[in-house]
């Protein structure tokens, strides 16, 4: 994939082409929903994830299912039920149509298996391995972009690292609370985010070298933020320059990926709306970088997706830039864009609330 462009779809139902289009604000503002899928039966969707090739997309929801879609053909591909264990934070690995996912059921119903991570072959619905070690429900799973390893965070206050070939954790970091994690594009660094708890208005970002994480973080920065907000995703830009903190509040934060210096605050509202994008169930973030790292898409409860150009952000700037609501938006007629995720290979992005929607730019 080119850093400055992604493949341009040439047909609304078949999203595959060898042509490449530059990602610009003008093209992004022409994006509109071209496919809508309602295979979670109108219930809340909690995570989306594209595979490495960009061909496949998976969603998980509170209906205790994982749904698989073919983005090349623009079709629903498979329904995977997990009624016994629930399903959240479904993530593709680098091994074919295999995915990891967390359980969601109450331990009194689930016989204490709510902390188990499952490794599933989507091709034949067979479990490959179980990863046990957390002592409370797993809230997020992130796959290393380079290696066949992954990280997980849990309500037990730890972040654990795993090798796909072993059922036991290969590393553990005690965080003290639930957290969010992200790997840098080279798979060398892991970022761990602690959002504010109680009356605190300060979160923390820590960067660890994966080869020596037991020695502690090499960067630790406090982030001034809103009280009672929940951080639901960390994301490095593909160019490795920026780090995004996506929250359930009206504010989101863009940091320098090397120093974790706060470069920008996206404020979609100046009203003290405590329920801006807060939902009963967890979800994997309403913000996403474009593959080039130059733009940020942010969903709002107004059924809008705001588009911000990040080109002017500089690591040596004195103060954070305040990004406010602008005219660069696209409107959703298919529900609230509670989850937003850009395809890594194709010029399409996905949104979800109770339905999964694929967006594409209008053909010129």
Any chance you could write out the topology, listing elements then pairs?
Layout: E1 5-7, E2 20-22, H1 25-28, E3 32-37, E4 45-50, E5 56-61, E6 65-70, E7 75-81, E8 88-92, E9 98-102, H2 107-110, E10 117-121, E11 126-131, E12 138-143, E13 149-154, E14 158-163, E15 171-174, E16 180-183, E17 189-194, E18 202-209, E19 219-224, E20 231-236, E21 242-247, E22 251-256, E23 262-267, E24 287-289, E25 295-300, E26 304-309, E27 321-324, E28 329-331, E29 339-342, E30 349-352, E31 356-360
Number of strands: 31
Q: How many discrete domains?
A: 1
Structural class: mainly beta
What is the class in the CATH system? Mainly Beta
Task: Give the distance, in angstroms, between the N- and C-terminal Cα atoms.
Answer: 22 Å
Under CATH, the homologous superfamily reads YVTN repeat-like/Quinoprotein amine dehydrogenase
Q: What's the architecture, going by CATH? A: 7 Propeller
Query: Roughly what percent helix?
Result: under 10%
Radius of gyration: 19 Å
How would you name the oligomeric state of the polypeptide chains in this document?
A: single chain
**Structure annotation, total helices:** 2
Strand order of the largest sheet: 20-21-22-23-27
Describe the largest sheet.
Answer: 5 strands, mixed
Give the DSSP E fraction (strand runs of 2 or more residues): 35-45%
């Amino acid at each position: 994939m080119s850093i400055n462009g992604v493949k341009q779809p040439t047909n609304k139902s078949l999203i595959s082409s060898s042509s490449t289009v530059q990602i610009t604000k003008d093209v992004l503002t022409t994006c509109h929903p071209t496919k809508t899928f309602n295979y979670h039966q109108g219930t809340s969707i909690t995570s989306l994830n594209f595979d490495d090739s960009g061909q496949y997309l998976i969603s998980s929801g509170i209906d205790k299912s994982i749904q698989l879609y073919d983005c090349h053909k623009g079709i629903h591909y498979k329904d995977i039920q997990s009624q016994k264990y629930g399903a959240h934070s479904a993530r593709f690995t680098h091994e074919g149509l295999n995915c990891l996912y967390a359980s969601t059921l109450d331990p009194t119903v689930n016989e204490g298996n709510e902390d188990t991570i499952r490794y599933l072959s989507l091709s034949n619905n067979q479990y490959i391995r179980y990863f046990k070690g957390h002592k409370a429900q797993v809230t997020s799973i992130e796959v290393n972009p380079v290696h066949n390893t992954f990280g997980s965070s849990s309500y037990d206050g730890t972040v654990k690292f795993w090798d796909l070939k072993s059922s036991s954790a290969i590393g553990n970091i005690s965080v003290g609370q639930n957290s969010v994690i992200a790997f840098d594009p080279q798979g060398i660094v892991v970022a761990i985010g602690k959002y504010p708890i109680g009356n605190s208005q300060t979160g923390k970002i820590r960067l660890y070298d994966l080869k020596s994480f037991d020695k502690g973080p090499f960067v630790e920065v406090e982030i001034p933020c809103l009280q009672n907000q929940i951080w639901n995703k960390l994301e490095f830009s593909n160019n490795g320059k920026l780090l995004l903190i996506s929250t359930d509040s009206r504010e989101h934060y863009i940091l320098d990926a090397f120093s974790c210096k706060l470069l920008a605050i996206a404020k979609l509202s100046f009203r003290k709306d405590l329920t801006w994008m807060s939902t009963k169930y967890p979800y994997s973030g309403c913000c996403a970088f474009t593959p080039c790292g130059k733009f940020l898409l942010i969903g709002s409860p107004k059924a809008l997706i705001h588009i911000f150009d990040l080109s002017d952000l500089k690591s040596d700037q004195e103060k954070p830039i305040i990004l406010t609501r602008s005219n660069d938006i696209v409107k959703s007629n298919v529900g609230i864009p509670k989850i937003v995720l850009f395809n890594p290979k194709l010029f399409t992005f996905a949104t979800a609330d109770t339905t999964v929607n694929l967006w594409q730019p209008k053909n010129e």
